Amino acid sequence: MKIGKIITSGFVLLLFLLPLSGFGAMEPAVNAVAESGHSVPFWTVFPFVLLLIMIATGPLFYEHFWHQNYPKIAIGLGLLVVAYYIFALHNTHSPVHALIEYVQFISLLAALYIASGGIMINIDKKATPRANVILLLIGAALANLIGTTGASMLLIRPFVRLNRTRIQPYHIIFFIFMVSNIGGSLTPIGDPPLFLGFLKGVPFLWTLVHNFIPWIFSLGLLGAVFFLIDIRNKTHHTVFEDDDIIRNKITLKGGGNFLWLIVIIGAVFLDPNVLPWVPAINYDGQKVSFVRELIMISVGYLSFKFANRQALEGNQFSFEPIREVGFLFVGIFATMMPALELVGNFAASPDGTAMINHNTLYWGTGVLSGFLDNAPTYINFLTAAMASQGASINQISEVMSFAKDNTLLLKAISIGAVFFGAFTYIGNGPNFMVKSIAEEIGIKMPSFFGYIIKYSIPILLPLFVIVWLIFFKFSIFL
């Protein structure tokens, strides 16, 4: 019976991943083909599929084996793909590029996780649906100032603590929907895809101007749905070792760590491709940042070393969630290289370019952002969209002109990448970390497919269809 469920789960996931043979474009994919002279065969996506299947089924059907061996599995599958690229395709560009992206990804995520872990916000008030919605909306707004990762790490524990006598998995799921993903749609700081667009030349305020109405509309609908679910919650238990006396106050410990968060956010902008004076490593004609990552790693170490011990204890802080994310995503970054290349190759073809419009960009970017990292997916589709207009993503002036003259196309890519990142645990970096923190506290979270089937399909999918109809299909708000 369990084997049947595993096979069924794998088949469902494979159906989701079949579009990998037909959307998007990406510089690394094009460069990889140029370097090796060969494109990857479709079967090379199966290590990626296998890793996702094991992430989905491991905690359900072979929990002890999975928790003991997931680092070996993730690294082993990743090395398998890397070895194929290096020894069979003679392509070192893609593995090195994936390694660079991973280091940038994990440096930011780890620094924000550790720094925010030393901040204990205790909202000792009565948990009501209204209070929860307000906190979720505050988190969504805050995500545009300190990123979805920063807002998630800062507020997930206070959110759980507020609801300590009635916490349920849906609380965490809606937190992922609203704070960890959709909330960060308004500024380049909000979500990594938008920051990449800003580095390429999209004006800083473009997302605020053009994404605001879909942002407030979607958060409003999700907030209403959450309110209707939460108002029916009559459970009473606790996941924190506190008494149940409501003191009706908000307290803060470890406030000094906010300074470390400011340093991290400031370091994000130290990109040598934008600021020529920033030291960089020249690789394959590109400037690769290392100062930013060194700052983030240093901040992670110092923020923990000098953190308020009471805040760490109150947050039940441990390194296990970031360890789990670190190992799993090193495998994901390595094994998804063939998937991204297949995506890129199709969009570089005449057939792929001919299919590009705001509808295909919204759904193409969105669906793949749910199962691949949404940052490279964003770049894939932005590259393809600009190529269809005879423009190059490597020219900042052309990116600025594209953003001005092709609002609907760029809006479809931006909304698709950020919104659909909430569709699975791996769609955006904070998702899996929030899940890990919740499980570390003691909350029983749904499995990979349980998340999709119970929450994403019945709640997010109708929302995405409505957003598409209003803002893209009929373009009611331009």
Please sum up the structure shown.
69% of the residues lie in helices and 4% in strands. The chain has 21 helices and 4 strands.
Name the features:
478 residues; mainly alpha; two-stranded antiparallel sheet; globular; disordered N terminus
Structure write-up:
By secondary structure, the protein is mostly helical. It has one domain. It is built from 21 helices and four strands. The chain has helices at residues 2-17, 27-36, 46-61, 63-88, 93-117, 129-162, 169-178, 192-200, 206-230, 257-268, 291-305, 309-314, 320-335, 337-348, 350-354, 358-371, 374-388, 396-405, 407-420, 429-441, 448-473, and strands at residues 120-124, 249-253, 280-283, 286-289. A two-stranded antiparallel sheet has the order 1-2. α8 (192-200) packs parallel to α17 and α9 (206-230) crosses α21. The longest helix has 34 residues, at 129-162. It is globular, with a radius of gyration of 21 Å. It starts with a helix and ends in a 5-residue tail after the last helix. 50% of the residues are buried.
